[in-house]
Structures are given as structure tokens and as C-alpha cells.
Design goal:
Length: 722
């Protein structure tokens, strides 16, 4: 017997068809079966035999000898390494080092593919049609391959992956999102996406954080195996550290990686994860920067986008107001971008033609959209006025240039060199006859709708770095306008200081990306990326101001909008979009499902409860009539109880009661029917509880598991509650 179920009022303790339970706890079918023993009777409803119910061992897996050999090797590694440091810390160090290697070789592969496109395009000089085809067909082929490969291997690999990881960290389990198949599909697909270049204008951060969490989950399972324990389904501690490693390994920025993990990935942050996150992120960042030195890419360990801002007088007092106004501008533009992004997501879901193509012909949709984007950025067309030939890295490097472009463009002796250098990249923003103000403004207008359109592509892609570069463009335009207005600079203590447009680009990058994601970690990331600590105060001021504008009127962030569009069971995103749902109580969404045992119940009731439900713990009541909650009993305890009955250790069988044999654990945390769904979600997340019992005046009303919590969140999203 169980509490009433909203979907099925019939009790799950009802005997199965064709089976009669006798007084001694056995069924008549097993007595009259001559082909199978008692422990081999097959339950067609649950797919389990009686032996499966009595056994707590996992089902037999293939390749037992190979798996045993691998496990022996892991145990040997544990015996050697564990005395040096804790096994958990070794896994964290391994996570950082492995993801840094993946990040480095991913960047290396992408750079080679981009150089191949540039070589092909440059060698077709003078053949406009062939150049156009090489400029468009190359990214179309790569993005089509990315979409086709990732969806054929693992459909869950498309997109950023950050909203799904946030949902998993909130306690809800999403199948296949942390599998090794997904890891391989996303890795290959992301390399192809990034190799398409700035024409598609997509990034790396989000998918790489997802890759890091998948690797973290795998290492956590390996760590559990080396300890000799059983595999657990929750990897929260390792996943939180893996999120920090993802950012730290992308940019060599461990501190902002930890802050990103705190802000974006979790609804709460446990203090014990603090050192783990910093240790793993530091290992990843140091390995990534060391690899850059060993490969000859950098001479020494330094920031990824090293700048040369003046440290004597980096900015002047009147410029503080300009940085605040820049933050307001970035916040306003972010609201426009997020509005367009939400409308585009809604359009792709509601339009029958687009939704049909996305459902059946993803490669066709990807190819068409990428062809459009590449055609717009073709250097001999509109791309000439938006620095179309520059890669994502070159775009950011050029925008952070501390020199004033309007002043450099007036020097008629400057001519573009044959090969681009960091000092000459600004010339891509000043083609002959066009001012830098026009190219920067055109870049911002075009990239806004192009980025919104690119977000609909069904392939592995990140959206943080494009927002970071777009914000740098806003800041660069602001700095160039201000430097033109104050051509003589600011006077302070007898010294004249010119306006540094690169400082405004740095502040704009942090402000816009922070406003889009509703976070402050981009401010610290901007400082770690450039090593420019002199602009810490104005960058933080601009980021705070932009966040204040973006968060006004409870607007959802970029990741919240994706969670809502994908209908992910992420309660914090839902509550930010609909704050009125925070008052919904458990009594309004509680289904009342689940198996409940009686203290005086016997073996037959226990056997049916184990067969009907995969619960790890079962509530025990005084009687089914009173529903007075006494405590809970674990599944292992119930299996031990059935084994004792089967072995005949207690006689007579009909007199055995569950309460006399099993240890009933008291319920330490209970919820009331008047507890809100938000409060119940926070309790289960903070305590890492798999279920929460709901009572009223001591009587059991039901209990919430993560599966039922997921259903309740989906009901809230669709308004299906009383």
C-alpha cells in the first residue's frame, strides 16, 4: 500500500496478475513451477527476478577480466600515490593537467585549420569568385561537419552545455550529459566550430566547461573505483571544481575561473569546495601557460592577451564618470541583445518551417546560416568595413591596443605591411577612405544580429567570448570618441595624459559580458587575461553599472533564457523569470506517489515494494490507516531482511514483522505541506539529499525525490499546479 498517486490511484501493492501471495510470503506460481526455482521467477512488470531483489550486487557487466585487470592497476596506482597526497587531490591535479592539455592542443588544431584557410584565400588573389568560394565553403563545410557529427554521435552535445551543467549541479540528473560519448562528440564538434573563424563568431568557454565537467565526472568514478567503493551518481564536489578548471584552462585565469564557478554554476557554494576549486584551477592554468612557453608561442609565463598600458597615469579622475557611462551603455545594449536572443529562440521554437528543419535537417540549416554569415564577412564586400579578415584572437588583440587609431590613421605614410603584426592590426579597422568610427559602428551593428542568429546553430559552441569581444568593440568606440573630444588630454600635477582607448575596450568587454551573463567574474577575467591591474577600479565600476541595468525588471540572463527555452528543470532560472512562483507550496505540487511500508508489514509487502520502486530508502509508518511516520529503512536493510527470511533464520515466517528485524532510522529533516517548492529545492541541494519526506502533524503526506522535483518544476513552468 502507498499514499494516493495523482496519476494512478491504484496501489502498487496490488498483486501482479496471475500471482497469488500466500501467508508464508511466497507466490503460488513459484510453488507450481517446475522449470524455475524460487529465486529465478521473472517479474514481467519490473524486469527483475527474485534473486535480483535479494541481491545488492550490480548486474553483470561485459569484459569482466579486462575490467578486473584495469581495477588492479588502479589499486596499485592508489597504493603508490596515496601516501604522497590524498587520492582526491591527485584526481583534482590530474583534472587540471588533462584539461590544460586538451585546451592547448585544441587551440593548436584550430590555429592550423585557420592558417590553412588563410593560405588558400591568399593564394587565390585576383580570382574573386574562387576567393569567395574559399571564404564561404570552408566554414560551411566545417560547421556542417560539426553539426552532423555531434548529433549523430550524441545529440546532447549541441550548444554550450552550461545550462545543462547548472541543472545537474542543482541536483537534477540529466542522462548522457556527462558521458564519454558526449565528451568525444563535443570535443570534435567544437574544434570544427572554432576553425570556422570569426565569420561564425562563436567561442570556446561554455563547451569547454562542459567538457571539463564530463572529464571530472569520469575521474570521480575512477577515484571511487580506486578506493574500492561503489559508484555513486552524485559528483557535485568534482563538478564544481571542474567548472573552475574549464575557465582556468581556457585562459590561464584560475581566480576568475573559481569566481565563475561560484556565480554561474551553482545556486549555493559550499565552503569546503573553495580550496578544491582553487587547487584544480591553478593546476590547469599553470599547465596551460607552461605548454605555451614550451611550444615557443610565448617567451615566458605571462597573460594570454598581454597589454602595455601606462602604469604611471593609467586614467584620470574625470574619466571615472566616462567609465560609469560606458557601463550604462553596455548594460543598455545587453538588454537589447538579450531581448533579441529570447525572441529568436522563441521564433525557432514556434515557427513551423524553422522548427521542422531544425528537427530533421540540422546540417542543412547549419550550412545555410553559416553561408549567410560568411558571405556578409567576405573581405571584398561588407567584411571590409568590419575587420572581416581578423580571427577572434586578433579582434580582441587589436581592440585592446592602447594607441589612438584616429591619430594613427591621419599619418599618410602608414601603409599596410605584407604580413599582419600585432602593431599593424589596427589598419584592418581603417580601410582607405573610411574612418575608424564608421568601421567600429558598422562592426557593432552587424555583429549584433549575426551573433543572435549564430546562437541558433545546432552545434557545439560557446557564446561568452563573442560577447566579450563585442563589449570590447563598444568600449573601443567610446574611447576613440572621447580621445577625439579631448585631443590634448587631461592635465594632472603638471603632466599631460592622453586618453587610452584600450582601457575603455577592456572595461567594455568586462561590462557587456558581465551584463549578458549577470555575473561579475568577467571583470576579474579581463584583468587576468591582460595582466592589467591598473584598471581594476574602472573595470569593476563599469561591470557593476552594466549589471545593475541588465538585472533591472528581473530580466533573465543569457543562460537563464537558454534554460527556459530548452525547458530544463532548473528552478532558479524559472524563478528569475517568474518570481511569483516562489510562493508555490509543496501541497500544490506533491503527487503523493511512492512506496510506503507498515511497521507490522511482512516479507510479501517488502518484496513487492522493492520490485515496484527503485527507491534507496522507504518510509515506515505505524499503520496505513494512521500514516504516522516512524522513520525510514534503507533498501539494503530490506534486502537483508528478505535474505534472512529466505534462509529460514527466523521462524515462523508468517510472524516476522519488518519493525522487529530492520533498523528504522529516524527522519532528521522533514518538510511541511506549507513549505515552498523553492525552500524544498534548497534543502535537498544543500544537504545533497535524495529525498525529502513531507508530513503534516506527524502524518506522512508524501515525499519528494529529485525525479518528482523535476516533474514539479516542469509543472510550474507550464502552469500545471493547483
Amino acid at each position: 500500500m502507498k499514499t494516493p498517486n495523482r496519476e494512478s490511484p491504484t496501489s502498487l501493492f496490488k498483486p501482479m496478475e496471475g500471482v497469488h501471495i500466500t501467508a508464508d510470503g511466497t507466490d503460488s506460481a513459484s510453488r507450481h513451477s517446475g522449470e524455475k526455482g524460487e529465486h529465478d521467477q521473472y517479474n514481467h512488470q519490473t524486469g527483475l527476478t527474485a534473486h535480483d531483489l535479494l541481491s545488492s550486487d550490480p548486474p553483470r557487466k561485459p569484459w569482466q577480466r579486462t575490467r578486473s585487470g584495469v581495477k588492479d592497476c588502479l589499486l596499485w596506482v592508489r597504493s603508490v600515490l596515496e601516501p604522497v597526497a590524498g587520492l582526491e587531490w591527485l584526481c583534482l591535479c590530474m583534472l587540471g593537467a588533462v584539461m590544460a592539455l586538451v585546451s592547448f592542443f585544441m587551440d593548436l588544431s584550430v590555429a592550423k585549420l585557420l592558417r590553412a584557410q588563410h593560405w588558400l584565400y591568399s593564394h587565390l588573389e585576383g580570382h574573386r569568385l574562387l576567393q569567395f568560394l574559399s571564404w564561404t565553403v570552408y566554414p560551411v563545410s566545417l560547421c556542417t561537419l560539426s553539426s552532423s557529427f555531434s548529433h549523430s554521435l550524441c545529440p546532447q552535445s549541441a550548444g554550450s552545455g552550461l545550462p545543462e551543467v547548472r541543472t545537474i549541479l542543482s541536483g537534477v540528473e540529466l542522462p548522457d550529459y556527462l558521458s564519454l560519448t558526449n565528451l568525444f562528440a563535443k570535443l570534435v564538434g567544437l574544434i570544427c566550430t572554432l576553425a570556422a573563424g570569426s565569420s561564425v563568431f562563436l567561442g570556446k568557454v561554455g563547451p569547454f566547461v562542459h567538457l571539463s565537467t564530463m572529464m571530472g565526472a569520469y575521474l570521480d568514478r575512477m577515484c571511487v573505483s580506486m578506493r574500492g567503493g561503489k559508484e555513486v551518481t552524485s559528483h557535485r564536489d568534482m563538478l564544481v571544481a571542474a567548472a573552475a578548471v574549464g575557465v582556468g584552462s581556457c585562459f590561464g585565469a584560475p581566480i576568475s575561473g573559481v569566481l565563475f564557478s561560484v556565480e554561474v554554476m551553482g545556486t549555493h557554494f559550499v565552503v569546503r569546495d573553495y580550496c578544491r576549486c582553487f587547487f584544480a584551477a591553478a593546476c590547469g592554468a599553470l599547465t596551460f601557460r607552461t605548454l605555451s612557453v614550451l611550444s615557443g608561442e610565448q617567451e615566458t609565463v605571462q597573460a594570454l592577451y598581454k597589454t602595455s598600458f601606462s602604469s604611471d597615469l593609467p586614467y584620470h579622475t574625470p574619466e571615472i564618470l566616462a567609465f560609469a557611462l560606458l557601463g550604462l551603455l553596455c548594460g543598455a545594449v545587453s538588454c537589447l541583445y538579450l531581448f533579441c536572443h529570447r525572441r529568436m529562440l522563441r521564433f525557432t521554437k514556434t515557427n513551423k518551417l524553422i522548427s521542422g528543419i531544425l528537427a530533421t535537417e540540422k546540417a542543412l540549416y547549419t550550412g545555410a546560416v553559416v553561408f549567410l554569415l560568411a558571405s556578409v564577412t567576405y573581405p571584398h564586400s561588407a567584411g571590409r568595413f568590419m575587420a572581416g579578415e581578423l580571427s577572434m584572437k586578433q579582434l580582441l588583440t587589436s581592440l585592446l591596443d592602447s594607441r589612438q587609431w584616429w591619430s594613427l590613421s591621419q599619418n599618410a605614410s602608414v601603409r599596410p605591411p605584407q604580413e599582419s603584426t600585432p602593431e599593424s592590426l589596427w589598419q584592418e579597422w581603417s580601410p582607405s577612405g573610411v574612418s575608424v568610427y564608421h568601421t567600429l559602428a558598422f562592426f557593432l551593428v552587424m555583429k549584433l544580429w549575426m551573433l543572435v542568429l549564430a546562437c541558433t546553430l545546432p552545434l557545439p559552441a560557446g557564446y561568452f567570448m563573442p560577447a566579450f569581444i563585442y563589449g570590447a568593440g563598444i568600449g573601443r568606440l567610446t574611447g576613440e570618441v572621447l580621445s577625439y573630444m579631448v585631443q590634448n588630454g587631461f592635465h594632472a600635477e603638471g603632466e599631460i595624459g592622453l586618453v587610452n582607448p584600450g582601457g575603455y575596450a577592456l572595461a567594455g568587454a568586462a561590462a557587456f559580458s558581465g551584463a549578458v551573463t549577470h555575473t561579475l567574474s568577467p571583470a576579474l577575467l579581463a584583468l587576468e587575461l591582460t595582466g592589467q591591474s591598473t584598471h581594476a577600479a574602472p573595470v569593476l565600476l563599469a561591470t557593476l553599472t552594466a549589471n545593475a541595468v541588465a538585472r533591472s525588471r528581473l530580466r533573465p540572463s543569457f543562460y537563464d533564457a537558454v534554460s527556459l527555452a530548452k525547458r530544463l528543470p532548473h528552478l532558479p532560472s524559472l524563478l528569475r523569470a517568474q518570481p511569483e512562483l516562489s510562493s508555490v507550496r509543496l501541497g500544490q505540487v506533491l503527487s503523493g506517489g511512492g512506496e510506503v511500508l507498515e511497521r507490522r508489514g511482512g516479507a510479501a509487502e517488502v518484496r513487492l515494494a522493492l520490485a515496484a520502486s527503485p527507491q534507496t530508502a522507504f518510509p515506515v509508518v505505524d499503520s496505513h490507516e494512521s500514516q504516522l511516520l516512524l522513520g525510514s529503512v534503507s533498501r539494503t536493510e530490506l534486502q537483508r531482511f528478505l535474505r534472512r527470511v529466505a534462509d529460514g533464520q527466523t521462524e515462523p515466517v508468517s510472524d516476522i514483522q519488518l519493525g522487529d528485524v530492520c533498523l528504522i532510522q529516524p527522519i532528521t529533516v522533514q518538510a511541511s505541506v506549507h513549505t515552498t517548492v523553492q525552500q524544498a529545492h534548497q534543502i535537498m541541494s544543500l544537504l545533497s539529499a535524495q529525498q525529502l519526506f513531507v508530513t503534516e502533524k506527524g502524518r506522512l503526506c508524501g515525499f519528494m525525490t529529485w525525479k518528482e522535483m523535476k516533474t514539479a518544476i516542469e509543472d510550474l513552468a507550464h502552469g500545471r499546479f493547483e
